[in-house]
Amino acid sequence: MKWKVGFVQYEEKTIRSEPIYDGSIIRVERLTVELPDGRQATRDIVRHVGASAVVPVTSDGHFLLVRQYRKPNECVSIEIPAGKLDPGEAPDTCAMRELEEETGFRAEQVEKLFSMKSTPGFSDEVIHVYLATTLLPGERNPDEDEFISAFAVSEQEVLAMIRDGRITDGKTIAGIYSALDRMGRFG
Ligand SMILES: [Mg+2]
């Protein structure tokens, strides 16, 4: 197979947008688009306000994770602390707020690791992922409808949890590896 070189037209122009659902966390739109070759297609898109997540690493090198029930997959999920942006909230402020609310530890500052598109196939959600390495005692304050518990695991344990499928959340897997990269583990 030969790789294509040169300019390729990829853009899909929006012809029509039909609102399907307007909820508290997401909005769903059905778009009719014109493909580069002139044909039309339908795209169902979930609009999301965006979120921040944070990889908290304790002074003795443990990772703080949270356990909570995830209704879409009907399972208890082990993840890094995260949550959606409040209106007008900066992503780093959101990361620090979610860290304290969900774990009871706070960080006076966080450093940006990366931003990721969680599911570009059907949603515009972007998650901003941060690293927090200087943790101080704070105040746990989960949302009213959030049943969540925090726990600490070693670097070896968190990697084992990713390998054996105890951790399956995308932002958590990417966040842990990126944090290890930032901490110089990959040379
Ligand atoms: Mg959360």
Could you give a short description of this structure?
With 187 residues, this protein is of the alpha+beta class. It is built from three helices and twelve strands, in the order E-E-E-E-E-E-E-H-E-E-E-E-E-H-H. The protein is globular.
Largest sheet, strands/sense/barrel: 4 strands, mixed
Strand order of the largest sheet: 7-4-10-9
Number of DSSP E strands: 12
CATH class of the largest domain: Alpha Beta
How far apart lie the N and C ends?
A: 35 Å
Catalogue the unreliable spans.
none
> How many separate helices?
3
* Beta-strand content bin: 35-45%
Overall spatial form: globular
- The CATH homologous superfamily of the largest domain: Nucleoside Triphosphate Pyrophosphohydrolase
Radius of gyration: 19 Å
**What is the architecture of the largest domain at the second tier of CATH?**
Alpha-Beta Complex
Q: How are helices and strands ordered from N to C?
A: EEEEEEEHEEEEEHH
Bound molecules: magnesium ion
Mean pLDDT across all amino acids: 95
Give a verbal description of the structure:
This protein is α+β, with helices and mostly antiparallel strands. It has two domains: 13-48; 51-182, Nucleoside Triphosphate Pyrophosphohydrolase (Alpha-Beta Complex). It has three helices and twelve strands; from the N terminus they run βββββββαβββββαα. The chain has helices at 91-103, 155-163, 170-182, and strands at 13-22, 26-34, 40-48, 51-56, 63-70, 75-79, 82-84, 105-107, 111-117, 126-132, 135-137, 148-153. It has a four-stranded mixed β-sheet. Strands 1-2-3 form a three-stranded antiparallel β-sheet, with no helix packed on it. Strands 6-5-12 form a three-stranded antiparallel β-sheet. A hairpin with a 3-residue loop joins strand 1 (13-22) and strand 2 (26-34). Magnesium ion (MG) binds at residues 82-83, 98, 102.
